[in-house]
Amino acid sequence: MSLKLRLARAGTKKRPYYHIVLADARSPRDGRFIEKIGHYDPMLADVSKRVTLDAERASHWLSVGAQPTDRVLRFLDAAGLLKRAPRNNPERAVPGKKATERVEARAKAVADKAAAAAAPAEAPAE
């Protein structure tokens, strides 16, 4: 049985609230879980009070072999239990194909307009 440390949603509509749970990887997101080890309230204004985590139980389950999801791994890294390697995806910032085409078309139009404006000024006076 593969174990996951993950979030289970428990809030109402437009008021998210999550429980940090240990569950079997095959069970549904909000379904059956083995143990609740904390909670996460993203609506709180005070960032330091958003996450409450039982560090002792989390470290126990990590030692047994439970795998945290990415969001829970961020919480564990903030608590000092596990190290999260920073991600780097330089391709994410690259504009898409259509956006690149629009920029090129706009640059060509500006260059054509500048060339047309400069052409009559360069013509010899008779």
From TrEMBL:
Keywords: Ribonucleoprotein, Ribosomal protein
Spans through the membrane: none
Stated name of the protein: Small ribosomal subunit protein bS16
One GO term (biological process): translation
Underlying gene: rpsP
Family: Belongs to the bacterial ribosomal protein bS16 family.
One Pfam family here: Ribosomal_S16
UniProt organism field: Devosia nanyangense
UniProt GO molecular function: structural constituent of ribosome
Cross-referenced InterPro entries: Ribosomal_bS16, Ribosomal_bS16_dom_sf
GO cellular component: cytoplasm; small ribosomal subunit
PANTHER family, per database record: 30S RIBOSOMAL PROTEIN S16, SMALL RIBOSOMAL SUBUNIT PROTEIN BS16M
UniProt-listed SUPFAM superfamilies: Ribosomal protein S16
